[in-house]
Queue: 4 jobs
Job 1
Amino acid sequence: MKVSILYNDPLQYTKDRIWDDGVTDIDQVDEAIDMSEYGVLDEMKSVQRALKTSNHETKIVPVALDPFKLIDELRNNRPDMIFNLCESLDGDPTQEMTIAALFEMLKIPYTGSRALTLGLALNKSRVKEILNYYNIPTALHFISTNPSKLSEEGYSRVKDNYPLIVKPSREDASIGIENNSIVHDEAALKKRIEFVLDKHKQPALVEQFIDGREINVSVVGNVVNDINDLIVFPISEIDFSALPSELPKIVSYNSKWMYNTVEFAGTKAVCPAKNLSPELEALIQKTARTVYHLIGASDYARVDFRVKDGVPYVLELNPNPDISSDVDEDTGFTRSGKAYGWTYEQLISNVIDFADKRWQRIFAEKA
């Protein structure tokens, strides 16, 4: 097939320095380095490398500020399949779904979750409403738009369950999650809500903090007959043991993206996770499949949990998670795929195959 690898190109819009200049050794830089802009660049290069061993004809298509340029590209050089790595438009993650919707309007097959799922997964409170409806364990929570009106917004649901964690309600990639996102009293709660409202310009999601094991479950495939059609990779766990004792055991923005910080150095993934009973492992896998299906994920996604007292509490579904690969440091999703027994080339090829068969079914149903 003709496969266009489409990604949002931060080099065209970011205001931050991009250190990946081919010259700088970031291990020799003293300051903390924000690696968040590198993620999609690494993904694009990784997928491109993987597809060099395939029979597909590939093309790199960067997206930045001008959607009309993208439309012209797709009309004039229409691919058979888009490998969709686009996470934003002009740095706005809420536009991730609109790019996918454009592919659908043009009737071009693409990998990963559809526009509706991408938009839904970004709305964390809506996802939690769905989880609650289906009696899937998730942390007690409420949404706040005004810290002076907590009692009217649902504070009673969590007020006896400190500590709490406060997050932006419509972000991903741990944006807005910092060490002081964990609050222990009402004064700190109000202060953190104000911070989210002021800096991130969106309501704050306030949750009971589940002080337990952080578990990530990577799922691939699509439901054809039942949810057992979905493949669950070996379970991964975030190891917080190297974090300083005074820091909260969370996957903060620093631990995910800020190279040369103690959080980044002290937060590592272990796959397969150790010391999970067969019963708990089976429950986590079953819950991951169920959430993947309920939220409408396609081809590949990751479900994040906190596990405490034998209960897997769902944090969120992450559609189209980072799927890059590096010899020294795979992403969590890729590491899990390799633990399952797939090479990286097999993983990328299978994602395309999942998407191709899915879109064939969709188009056949509409014919």
Job 2
Amino acid sequence: MPCAMSEGLLTGVRVVDFSQYLAGPTCTRLMVEQGADCIKVELPDHGDPSRSLEPRVNRRSGFFIQQNRGKRSVCVDFRTAAGQEIARRLVERADVVVENFAPGVMARYRLAYDDLRAVKPGVIMASISGFGQTGPLADRPAFDFVAQGYSGIAHMTGFADGPPLLVGSAIADSNAGVHAFAAIGLALYRRQRTGEGAFLDISMVDALIHMHETAIHAPAMTKGDYTPIRHGRDYQPLAPAGVFKAPQGWIVMIVTVHQVDQLWEALDRPDLATDPRFRGNNARLAHRQELNHIIEEWMATFDTDDEVVEALAAYRVPCTKVNSPADLVREPHLVARGSIVVFDDPVAGESVLPGHPLMVTGVEPATDLAVEALGQSNRSVLDELGYSSSEVDTLLADGTLVSKPYG
């Protein structure tokens, strides 16, 4: 039976999840936390490859825990005719299908959108890939860092006189998963009004290109006067804005033209308001290094980074210390909001995980969700589909279904 969960925005929605690793599982994790019943379809012999990612405790991966809590695992070889029949019968009872194989893989197994809507006309299918399902590069393999490079995100990361750098988190995978989550919600809303299903083509590259706030339009608008380039510790369009050396570590501060007078007050430097070097953003950009030096000298007069942040926050100057992800569990703000949750897995023990990112009045996302071993729900799910116990035994014996007591 489905794992117990609180009433959510997607309670009553059933998802068949063929995805693995991160992009697809991110999408379906968000759906499960909003109450959806998710059947995770995994291939033999080992299921989702993320089950083997380190760190692991008692053969259970923290990565897998984070992305797959609350999903029912069915391990079925849908490369075979019998496995494809099971997959289609799952889809007959589903609202949404999610997959993130390379384009063409689902068609090879007769599980493409056209195949599935033949058995469930109103089905919504989200296919997540690196470059999308169409275009000259659709067939190219892609991982998160490839998408960062192609989309220009890597070009904008690092120092201008150094090499492009990769963002240290899987922003392409996770961002594409969130885009798919949003698209599915819209498709469900349209289906409620029209009865029509939908095919959703979600590209990691497209999702990252959508994140450029200036770098795409500015060169065209300025006829090349604006050159998008990585700018290291400084934010290119604004000063002071960027990362500043603090007594213990680093502080991010962004001061717009509407807040600069507050900064002068925080620094106790009213003279800077009339200093011609710093009057107006263009002047501050021209004399950025001098202004950064003044700010960092002031920060050095404090004993701790927290004291600097409090001194700036007292004048409503936007800032924060740069946190290590390892320290976030100790941030009271994140704990209070449920942005960080502590999850006690019976196999791996206590884990610290990201919480659900959507705060909706009257809706409590599900967080205490069980993690299933590979194929743990084979029998219960196939029983729901009308398979007899002896039929399940046969499917297990011939390798169409696989289950393992760990993972």
Job 3
Amino acid sequence: MKIRRVALNIFAWTIALIWIVPFVGVFMTTLRPLDELIHGWWNFDSFHPTLENFASAWNHPTAALKKGMVNSLIVAIPGTLIPLMIATMAGYGFSRYRFPLRKSFFILVVITLALPQQTIAIPIFQLMNSLNLIDSYLGLILLHSAWGLPWITFFMRNFFTTIPVAAEEAARIDGANDIVIFFKIILPVALPAIGSACALQFTWVWSDFFLALILIYSPNKLLITQRIPLMRGVYNVDWGLLSAAAIIVMIVPILIYLLLQRYYIKGMVGWSLK
């Protein structure tokens, strides 16, 4: 058993090292001048770290990330909360209530999960154009909300099916209606699943480039992911600048994961104590 445990640990650390080495290379590219990277980022004969690339990306003259971060937050926050609230209630409805065509509706939800964005890019543009929502944050928020509803509904429905109905039946005997049961009993228990869905949806909305490329055109409205390609020069590519910009974009989803991990554990502990 000890040999097996040691072998599994070695295998796990090897996989982790394979995943982290490229990121270390990108990070070293952001911190070191180009002349130190010619012979490889792993060569530390000369090491003069600097944060100049981060400052240049943050205050870029034509594609400043500080403005792009604000724009992305304007889209990502409502684009996460709106589908999360609606899909949580929809998932609970699919797991608890019996109504006509329930299975058909649920199958339709599952089918939409396999629909690639690229296949409906033209209908999306035509629909948003007819609604005068081109180059509008509202249009992008509605699009991300509609795209997140199916998978969050499916995710939450599967979670609610694992919760016993005994507490809900006891609450109904005491006179509680469905709204009180959902918000007072079910919602606190569902905090772990809600935290997980929130982290995933926010990360996908924040990292989106394709849908934003279809709808957002004004230079002052460009999201943070749209600004990184604009930093690429015509005759020269500043890899340190691009690497720093990529890491800045990664920081916010990482912080969201760290923040929601705490609430995830808190919800699990609260559920077990109750």
Job 4
Amino acid sequence: MPNAMKTALLLGAMSALFLLVGQALGGAQGLVVGFLFAALTNFVSYWFSDKIVLSMYRAQQVGPDSRLYQLVERLATRAQLPMPKVYVIPEMSPNAFATGRNPSHAAVAATEGILRILSEDELEGVIAHELAHVKHRDILTSSVAATLAAAIMMLARFAMFFGGGRSDDREGSNPIAGLAVMILAPIAAMLIQAAISRSREFDADAGGAAIAGSPMGLVSALRKIEGASRAVPLDASPATAHMFIIKPFSMGGMFSLFSTHPPTDARIEALLQARG
């Protein structure tokens, strides 16, 4: 399915959730509020989601003097992509992501931790993976999912504080339905994220290996990041977990339903098989 269609479906699904939450909590008036909130959130998600995500992690833009900038520039030229903006995140947990609404308005961000622990070949594999997301136009879908999921979770928390039993002049809303929406809305948001992002990681791994010229740097990087991330977890929002090259925290049991990445071992196996 083309990414433009995925983005449209995501915006539509999240908008439906806003309307459902609004109606359950406030009846007809709540439905109107939900519609207005959905329209505003969709607008902000499309035009400003990249800036929102970068600001969440206090990402700092770097220029041509940076090792990271030079590597991104070299690989972007090789991939025949416009030069994205480059950011460093002041976190010791190793990770990276790409964001933006299209290849001409893209950004690549990496943590200080990943710059410290990876060799040049490993870092090249990681950045090539992120540029593959840019080339495949995954970044808008990913950024929109992050912004909308965060908005859904915020709305659910707001509703939890202010109650779900509002009524208007003609009809009352069901408090049980309101409570169910408060619980299910963030779960639905996370499930949508997972459905969108899992298969894309395999494609970006393969695309990154092609850009880098070999899968071995990325294979080694994935192993190293996986181990280091467990030792130094990233304080990340669940709404943005799908954007990173490796999930920034460990989730087990029923929370594995919300996993936004395939197992790292499966990704490595696919890379090695493609190498032949």
